[in-house]
Amino acid sequence: MLAKRIIPCLDIKDGRTVKGVNFIELRDAGDPVEQAKIYSDQGADELIFLDISATNEKRKTLHDLVLQVAARLNIPFTVGGGITRCEDVSSLLECGADKVSINSAAVRKPELIDELARSFGSQCITVAIDARKTDNGWKVHLNGGRVPTELNLFDWAKEVAARGAGEILFTSMDHDGTKSGFANKTLARLSSMLTIPIIASGGAGKKEHFRDVFKIGKADAALAASIFHYNEIAIPDLKSFLKNKNISVRTTT
Prior knowledge:
The protein is α/β, with parallel strands linked by helices and about 250 residues long. Helix content is about 35%, strand content about 30%. Strand 1 and strand 2 form a beta hairpin.
């Protein structure tokens, strides 16, 4: 059995880590460079850095900050925000990223997924999907959750996988920042449909939520932000808890 991954996420705005609820009411959560080092030392399996306003502000990711964060890490590092072409990916990989995450650009130009997978390998390409449940099912949102679409989550996830994405980062906007648990029923459906890994995001509030997202939601990895940023749960303690629940995790050394 593959070990489940625990992934802290740094949502970046104006060079600082921020966190909100349901994608709004953002508040400062610290210095991303220092946080990255702490998470790496604590035994996080990966780190995800998302420049959450890059697309909406029509600019590229903060490369200098990516360089600084990468220099402090010894774990895989995924970067997203403002990526629209192969040159953007090349630049981020040169700055120290191991993988990239694309979201809005993939919806607007789906063939970008194929292009990036061919150029850099599927293992390098994560497609992030932000979605909210509506009366007409789960609908994909763009630009950091600001722009709703009529695109169905499950249809889009299947297309993303078919086009060559290496994994999907699914964030339930309804659960984001609520600390009420992950969208496990939806995650389990995604997992049953697809053969690529699913990273669960949105709703982590206590250790039991991670147990449930792996056992019920069938996720391959779980991402969280505020509970790690504000020292509510320590990664070594979380991994010890999961191991005691017979969930395979990489042990912290």
